[in-house]
Amino acid sequence: MIQNAWLIPVFPLIAFLILLFIGRFLKEKASYVGIAALALSFIVSVLVLFERIGGETYTFVIEWITFGESTITMGYEVTALNAMMLIVVTLVSLVVHIFSREYMHDDNRIHVFYSYLGLFSFSMLGLVLAPNVLQLFIFWELVGLCSFLLVGFWYFKPEAAAAAKKAFLTTRIGDVGLLLGLVILFNQTGSFDYGVIYAAVENGLINDTLITATALLIFLGAVGKSAQFPLHVWLPDAMEGPTPVSALIHAATMVAAGVYLVGVMYPLFLASSTAMTVVAYTGAITAFFAATMALVMTDIKRVLAYSTISQLGFMILALGTAGYVAGLFHLMTHAFFKALLFLGAGSVIFAVHHRQDIRDMGGLWSKMKITSVTFLIGALAIAGVFPLAGFWSKEEILASALLNGDGFLFAIALITAFMTAFYMFRLFFKTFTGEYRGGDHDDPHADDPRVDAYGAADVAEADNPRDESMDKEAHVPPAEDHGHHHSPEENSGFMTLPLIVLASLAVVAGLVNLPFMGYPLEGFLTEGLNLGSQPHGALWLAILSLAVAGSGIALAWAMYYKGAIAEDFFAKKAPGVHNLLLNKYYLDEIYTAVFVRPTVAIGRFFWEMDKSIVDGMVNLIGRSTSSTGRSFGRRHNGQLQTYGLVSILGGIVVIALAFVLRGYFG
Amino acid sequence: MVPVTFFLALAAILFCIGLYGVLTRRHLVIVLVCIELMLNSVNINLVAFSAIGPFANITGQVFTLFVITVAAAEAAVGLAILIALYRNRNSIDVIKHDLLRW
Questions:
Q1: Which of A288, A444, A630, B38 pairs with A260 at a CA distance of 20 to 30 A?
Q2: Is A633 close to B102, i.e. CB distance below 8 A?
Q3: Which of A634, A639, A648 minimises the CB distance to B95?
């Protein structure tokens, strides 16, 4: 079966092509095409994984281009790492396909949605299977495109269109770095193949400065894709896309591509201690800052978005401190429970009629049993509670930060773990416990600009006059309709089944790397690679991480469930900090002032220049020609006698000239 | 013997009068008449050279006959056009016929 691994990306591609051409006629049935394709991919992935566990890395390449002495190949490769990634991607994609069946069912463009999902799955799986970095780069750009298409799926919402553009442009900065890194690598090694690059790095064929430069440039690509500081700003805005997309692309798979890239190029990073330090600190800073912002957000999806950034920071931190397995292990477990949380959030949003502000929720526990329980499992998993998946992977990251990093990194990681537990349970308590606050017709936060900006954006959209049909497409019902009248209830099986599947995975996914089973995942991933020994924590570290998670949960419980501490206790204590966090450290504003405005100004300058000087010259030529024509044209008055006079005068002039100059008559 | 220059001067004077008329008269019939005048001044030249030119022979006079014939035909065609024009445009004022304008 491993020889047929190429089938895995091909199934979604076929689904994409089918939906592209005949999707219009399938409408809602389009979802079955997508689901079937992903189910097949998943089955093949499972078979491939089983075969890979017992077997060897399988590579199949054909020659693509030959020039000079270099040959570029294309094909596919099944390594331990990408066998694992295949499972993660196909599984999450499959459950998201199933979930969307219900979530998107009254959208007129559901077939377009499914075709995009198919294209994305194809690109992501192609990225994972790529045997060389050039092919990886091609698919890397394709997933970026799919992200753009899907974030902007409701393109008639201005926020969505702006978010799509922002996501695309921000990741582009990283992509430029990646491309430059690849160019240097090719220049130095004459090949894009992973094997050749590893060997060149190991044998010292590239000098140290270049290795560091290349590693940092490639890391820049990862920073863009995995939303690391300072390029993380696109991810929260990308939440304007449909929620299943957020779950699939912006939580579980595509954003993990950056981590995967670092994992795949790991020998290169290991060869440069500078690069490793940069990676570790970027990860730690990102994890910390994103977590602080998640503390105060009130939009359910934005909390999860910042949480995603923070968790990706954890993975990068682990990779930067030589915790290769820890980072990739967390990538896998995080994919499951973050997809679970996002789909849970989607289920909630769907049930409360497309409101996203957690201050309008509450009391959903008794109304939506399955969603609540699965969401709780996801929250426990991400907080790192024993024995769920997140506990095992996070504990390894902490161990990695402690043993190979320094005290600063470890402290940051620990604080972030505490904040993670706190904001997740803040979200949980606000959403599922207490009284349902979304029932009243008048929006209690109507005056709050932030609600206007995020929470009520959908409702505001309904006021848009051109929206008769758009409403249906975006299925944002006008507030006056059936919007807020009946209370939320549990959604159908299409939405709860994915939650149950992911929740069970969030429980058991940690088992693949249990310490007392001899770290099977570690053995699998590091086999044949020369990565040094992997860090493992002592028992006290596990207990410490549990205590940290427990205290975070306890604080959230005291503030948002019990009410022992007022909800705005900290906001009152430090209003400056609270404001800073609410405004996301003013990073968007700073970027606007520092990068966007000058760029736009330069653009405008050149535009003006083009308009006035370049166009001016062209216009001058045109205008002078036509004005000459016009002035001669005016002489053309149709008067026979004027013509005659001019002809005769001309004749006289000619004769006179001939007379004077040539002496013709003389 | 009258010198040839006298004939030539007469022809030149007639030609200029004709030309002046062609360029200034607004009445189309007068313009046609003036064209005839110009043709005839050329005829005087031809006849003068044929009688007392350096290579005097009969060709000049034959040519004159042709010119007179053509002039007659031209006058007929010209007048016909003039009448057609008048019927269509209700005017034979040269100034008003400026259809060739840009």
A1: A288
A2: yes
A3: A639
Percent of chain A past pLDDT 90, that is, above it, reads 28
Q: Which two tokens mark A545? A: 């991480």
Answer whether A310's CB lies under 8 Å from A420's CB: yes
Q: What is the dihedral of CA B11, B14, B16, B17, to 10 degrees?
A: 180
Identify all chain B residues contacting A639, using CB atoms and an 8 Å cutoff.
94-95, 98
pLDDT tens-digit map of A585-638:
888 888 888 888 999 999 999 999 998 999 999 999 999 999 998 888 887 777
Nearest CA to A377 out of A276, A500, A486 is that of: A500
| Contacts with B95 from chain A: Cβ below 8 Å | 639
Q: Is residue A64 helix, strand or coil?
A: strand
**Which residues are bridge partners to A77 per DSSP?**
A59
CB contact under 8 A, A645 and B23: yes
Assess contact for B22 and B31: CB atoms under 8 A: yes
Residues of B in contact with A645 (CB under 8 A): 23
| pLDDT averaged over every residue in chain A | 84
Q: How many Cβ atoms are within 10 Å of A614's Cβ, its own excluded?
A: 11
Q: Which of B23, B101, B102 sits opposite A641 (nearest CB)?
A: B23
Q: What is the ipTM of this complex?
A: 0.82
d(CA A271, CA A266): 9
Distance CA A242, CA A102 (A): 12
- Nearest C-alpha neighbor of A335 from the set A92, A498, A513, A82: A92
- A437 phi and psi angles, rounded to 5 deg: -105, 5
Q: Which CATH number is associated with domain B4-96?
A: 1.10.287.3510
Cβ of B102 and A634 within 8 Å?
Answer: yes
pTM: 0.76
Contacts with A633 from chain B: Cβ below 8 Å: 102
Q: Which residues of B touch A638 (CB under 8 A)?
A: 97-101
Would you give the distance in Å from CA A637 to the centre of its chain?
70
Of B22, B95, B99, the CB nearest to A644: B22
The secondary structure element, H or E, covering residue A70 is: strand A70-78
Residue A496 in contact with residue A370, Cβ under 8 Å?
A: yes
CB contact under 8 A, B24 and A639: no
Question: Confidence band (pLDDT; 50, 70, 90) for A188?
Answer: confident
Say if residue A484's pLDDT is above 50.
no
